[in-house]
Amino acid sequence: MKDRVESERSFWNSFAKKYDKFISKNLSKTYEIILSNLKNDTDQTKNLLEIGTGTGIIALELSNIILKITAIDISPEMIHIAKEKCNQQSITNIDFRVGDSCNLEFQDNTFDTIITSNVLHLLFRPDLTL
User: Each residue of 17-62: pLDDT tens digit?
Assistant: First the structure.
């Protein structure tokens, strides 16, 4: 498992600075649909966990309708970029942190809603995340 974490972390750290540009160029329409659906699906949510936040695209977009968001990613570089974007936008209700979807460190029933978008197919062991 340790090799899995190191391998995933290494890949996503190397991709972090290119991630937003890649999403914008290749998946902008997909993300528009995802965000629209998530806004509808989370409109009653007060405390949300996002697994695999990347650079925080979804968490930042949902921050104006959800009271508290915790957003994790295995990549410290992705989290660093997400925190920078959060600070630039003066958003205060998101807690971005490094975390592993296969080894969550939260108590049961901490969150009203848990989301993960475009992540499961990338995981070494998606069954552990689920």
Answer: 999 999 999 999 999 999 999 999 998 999 999 999 999 999 999 9
- State both tokens at 2: 């340790």
Yes or no: is domain 2-129 CATH 3.40.50.150?
yes
Which residues are 114's β-sheet partners? 49
Task: Give me the residue label for tokens 């969150």.
Answer: 111
Question: Pick from 7, 9, 3, 62: which is nearest to 31 by CA?
Answer: 62
Could you give phi then psi for residue 27, rounded to 5 degrees? -135, 20
Provide the whole-model pTM.
Answer: 0.91
Neighbours of 100 (CB within 10 A): 18
DSSP string covering 84-127: HHHHHTT--SEEEEE--TTS----TT--SEEE--S-GGG-S-HH
**Intra-chain end-to-end CA distance of the chain, in Å:** 16
